[in-house]
Amino acid sequence: xxxxxxxxxxxxxxxxxxxxxxxxxxxxxxxxxxxxxxxxxxxxxxxxxxxxxxxxxxxxxxxxxxxxxxxxxxxxxxxxxxxxxxxxxxxxxxxxxxxxxxxxxxxxxxxxxxxxxxxxxxxxxxxxxxxxxxxxxxxxxxxxxxxxxxxxxxxxxxxxxxxxxxxxxxxxxxxxxxxxxxxxxxxxxxxxxxxxxxxxxxxxxxxxxxxxxxxxxxxxxxxxxxxxxxxxxxxxxxxxxxxxxxxxxxxxxxxxxxxxxxxxxxxxxxxxxxxxxxxxxxxxxxxxxxxxxxxxxxxxxxxxxxxxxxxxxxxxxxxxxxxxxxxxxxxxxxxxxxxxxxxxxxxxxxxxxxxxxxxxxxxxx
Length: 365
Description:
7-stranded mixed β-sheet
């Protein structure tokens, strides 16, 4: 039987109404204090490669890279659904907790919990992390980066990074029901909108237009899509739809300046749903599709460089920086700085003034 000890915040215990002696424990835990030795046996889905754009978004959130306002830093615990764990026992380490309270090393709401896990045996899958596997993998992968950024702050990050994640622990449940709970929790995950639209052929015109481009296989059109090397794709089709929507003259006519695509960045799901209901507006942008993608890279790379050259300072959270160069997928260029998507989308939308409809209603420059 394996056992770990965790320093947690705000621990609560709730008895199960059906199974006597079974409890749900819930608490917050600093991601830097989360053990890297929690078993993952009960999870029927192994985490996909975490380079896919949706998981990069989670990573950005964990590293405070997805914000502009510093008041919104360290909010990962309320943006992420957290982790669900099965355990054999959960006990308060009273001696260590009391000692920490007396010495002042623990806050009043903090405590140490000992959690034990039964191992796989026969038909029993074992205890461990049942849901939130991707979150757990990302937390483990970024642990060293968070530690380094907190000791050696870099531009583009709000530090100190002090993120928490919500953890729920189901303790004392019969072995026979654990696999059923795990299957039910994971099969409840909905198929993504883009996967359904892909089955309907809604993206076929994009695939056809980009089939000969060097970045073609790096675009994901459905959940779990991979490139020719079985690696996770780097760019999601929902982002292509959002970029084209910035140039939609029907939704945001140039004759009505008050209508601006301020919803595109924050409401990608709604934008994709709107596209699914009527694809005709964006299909009329076929002549500018490749240009828009290249413009995406040109603006995100050059805006920060232009600002520095002309004596402007861009605040942390607006620019992403790293020591190893980015390779911009659509332009093929490299650079160490890029814009965060929020200001990038605002700049790109200004180029809507440079497109028009021709006599056939097709959008051209």
